[in-house]
Amino acid sequence: MMRARASSAQRASGASRAASASATVRDLISRGARRLSRARVFYGHGTDNALDESAALVFHALNLSHDAGAAVCGKRVSATAQQRVEALITRRVDERIPAVYLTNETWFAGLPFHVDPRVLIPRSALAELIEHQFAPWINPPRVKRVLDVGTGSGCIAIACAVAFPRARVDAVDISKDALEVARINVRKHRLGRRVRLVESDHFSGLSNISGGTYDIIVSNPPYVGAREMRSLPPEYRHEPRIALASGDSGLDSVRVILREAGRYLRPGGVLVVEVGNTETAVRRAFRDLPFVWLDFERGGGGVFLLTAEQLHTHRVEGAPHAAHGWPGRDTPDRG
Fold it and tell me: Can you give the pTM of this predicted structure?
C-alpha cells in the first residue's frame, strides 16, 4: 500500500518522540543536518553545507556560545530543549527561511552583526579586502574618510571603521528599515562617533551633510537582473527585493555609481564595487573602463576596483538617475 507523505504535524510528532530519548548536542547537529540534506534546502547565506547550517541552528536554539565549540558537543540536552531545536529546524525546512534570519546573527570580517529580514544577509567577499585594509590599492594610514553606498546592515561600514581606526565612515541607504538595523549594529560596536548613517538614494543625500570627498568608496549594491531574480532559490524571497533587484540587466545601480562616484573621490582614492554574477554584463556594458578585477583567497569574485583618476578620465555618460530609490524598488514583482 502506498503511504501518504508525512505532514508537518506528523513530522513534529515524530520529532517530539525523538526528543524524549537522551541526546547530545552532537546528536542534534547530526540529526538536523540529515533533515536539511533530505529537504534539499539552499545554502549560501552564511554556510555552504548542511552540517554547518545545522550547528548554527542548534547552538542558537540551545543558547550556546560558538566560542565553546567542540567542548559542548557531548553535553546532554533535555527533552524540552530538543523540541526547541526541532522546531527551529522545521521552520528552516518548511518555510525556507535562511538560518541567519532565524538566529538574527551573522559574522562579517570577523565581527558579529544583528541581521533580520529588513536587510540583505552579509556574505560579501569584500570582507577579506577590508580585513587587509584594501592593500595594496591604498595606503592605510592616509585613509581619513570612507563612504559605503547601500549599507544595509552596516556591516561594510562598521568593518571599515574597525580596519581604519582614524577614519570616519559615511554609510548611506535609501531604506529606512535598513538604516534602523544598521543603527543597531553601530551601537553594538560603539562606533556612533565615527560611523554616520545617512538616508540617501546613492549619492543624492550627501549634499545635505557636511563632508567632502572620500579616500575609499565601497559598495555592494543591488545587481541582480530580472531573469536571475525569477530563478533564485526560495530562500532569497525572504531578503528585501530592493537590496537585490537592479533592473532588467542588473546594471541600473552600478551605472549610477560609475557615473557619480568620481565627484566624491579624493585624488588617489579608489572605488570598489561588488557586482557578483553581473561581472560579464559589466565588462560588456563598460568596455572602455580599465577595471581591475580582484581575486580573493577565501573565494568569491565579481569585485572591481577603479581609481579616482581613471573615473575622471573615463566618464560614464547618459545614465538616467533612478528618481525613486534603488533600481528595482518600484518595478513589479517578477518572482
Answer: 0.85
